[in-house]
Amino acid sequence: MIRLLKIELAKLWPANYFRILLALWLVAFITIPFASSSFLDWMANNKMMSQNPMFNPSHWPIFDFADLWQNLAYIYKMISIFMSFIIIISVTNEFDYKTVRQNVIDGFSKTEFWLSKISLIICFSVLSAVLLFILGLIIGYSMFPIFEMKLLFTNISFLFAYFFQVFYLLMFAFVLSILIKRAGIVIAIMVFWIYIIEPMLSAIIGSRLVDWPMVSESLPVEAGWNLIQFPFRKYLLMKTQDFISLQDIAIAGAWFVFFFWSSYMLLTKRDL
Amino acid sequence: MILEIDNLSKNFGKLKAVNKINLNIAKGTVFGLLGPNGSGKTTTLGMLLGVTTPTSGSFSWFGQGDSPQIRKNIGAILEQPVFYPYMTGAQNLDIVCKIKELPKERVEQVLEQVNLLDRKNDLFTAYSLGMKQRLAIASALLCNPKVLVLDEPTNGLDPQGIAEIRDIITDIADSGKSIILASHLLDEVQKVCSHFCVLQKGNLIYQGKVEDDFSNDSYIEVASDNNLQLMSALNTLPEIKEVTEQENILIVKGDSKLNSLQVNKHLMAQGIAVSHLATITKSLEERFLEILADQND
Predict the structure, then answer these.
(1) Strands B249-254 and B219-223, how do they pair?
(2) What residue ranges in chain B does DSSP mark as E strands?
(3) Which residue has the higher pLDDT, B149 or A222?
(4) Which ipTM did the prediction report?
(5) Which residue out of B11, B73, B83, B84 would a mutagenesis test of the A interface target, given it has the greatest number of A Cβ atoms within 10 Å?
(6) A112 touches chain B (CB under 8 A)
(7) CA A22 to CA A34: how far, in whole Å?
(8) I need a surface site. Which of A198, B126, B258, B287 has the fewest CB within 10 A?
(9) What are residue B204's DSSP bridge partners?
(10) Residue B189 reports pLDDT greater than 70
């Protein structure tokens, strides 16, 4: 697996698109929490806002420990689509250049080729989670400089949820890439699916089949998305799911297994 | 045996792209796989190299079957040279080295061998077609392969590029490696191959030695200012079986030992000077067309 990952990184590193997307992702990753905390400061200085203490977001403990892990994970899951573009381009390029075929001729088994891409996906997921952890510590400590282990690791499960959510999205992108093989089309379909098709389906199902909310939660992207629920409602004293529900894990897990199985089948059973 | 193929078939829907091919290729041969475009050459090689799944039948490399591990000891290019365009020649070969689990030093050695060392740090996209083809051969040579599989290696090259590739192939063949060469260019196969087979519409319709197929069909042309005298002189040589005249040139056919030197010595001994003397070997092209014509009858 490590050998396969090294090969993947050797393929990626000289590519311009990889360096650019990775740099964009890193910049977004590092700046978003700082940018949003200055936005909160601005709101606090806004007269109208600051007159109503309850709705003053600068008083919300967004970047304080315990709350921080879910909030950060939620913010960051919105930029994981950048990472999926790297996977999409890397996989579709192999079909475009026919290098997947040459890799097999040179001595890869089709399974090894599949594993090499999986190893890349795992590497990116781990990288995302590690960065979240490091930034979480820095931000949390700068906001509230009390170092208490118990508080620090409360809600740390959202770190794993974030790891899984990135892993899940990248696997979804991987399956689409093998199926469609053209980077532009895959990216268009994915964006279209995430932002238009699924919300529409979810709305239609939601209104027609009120008794079956399970169905809209079971759509492929929604299922992964649901792992980390929208956290900010609780500051308006609304009901918020601030834990990872077993049902969400089960639905996402089922899709996840399907992504593994279908990507493996598509790659190994087809002629290259 | 380098390769044994047993009843190998591939269907694409109703189309029988490759139909029950049986073939054995011995060690040290340069084997030509001939056939018109679309006759199943690339499909056959694709199956032998693990990218196309056979519909039925089997094959075995080096008597050990088929596995990715075995492919690591084969150098192969299918159709055009395939590399990552955004990488340099050396970076591309480095990837192949990693896949085949070879030491990095091989990269420089093979680049030297195909005369690309001074361009190793240029992007693949900046290479000419001839250089790309040479890089592909370098890549195939990385593992110091027991057998080299080349599919149309001179396709689309200019005459100079073709000559360069041919020299490289001849050098490799001289070093004792086995080569399987697919081509629709007949004189290419005739120039470099020792054995050949012919594919047509997925069927293996002929196989044999290049030498056998031509030595039987060679003849000698002789002419002088007095062809009548020449003919009677030639008829006294016991190795000659038949002399016929065609447009003022005598066509001499004899047994396989007969050569032009012998004929010339014989005529000089009789005091006859010739104005024309040549050994004519039938080209593979003629033979190939004959084989295809036989099939159509």
Answers:
(1) antiparallel
(2) 3-12, 15-25, 30-34, 56-61, 74-77, 147-151, 178-183, 195-200, 203-209, 219-223, 240-246, 249-254, 276-280
(3) B149
(4) 0.84
(5) B84
(6) yes
(7) 19
(8) B126
(9) B199
(10) yes
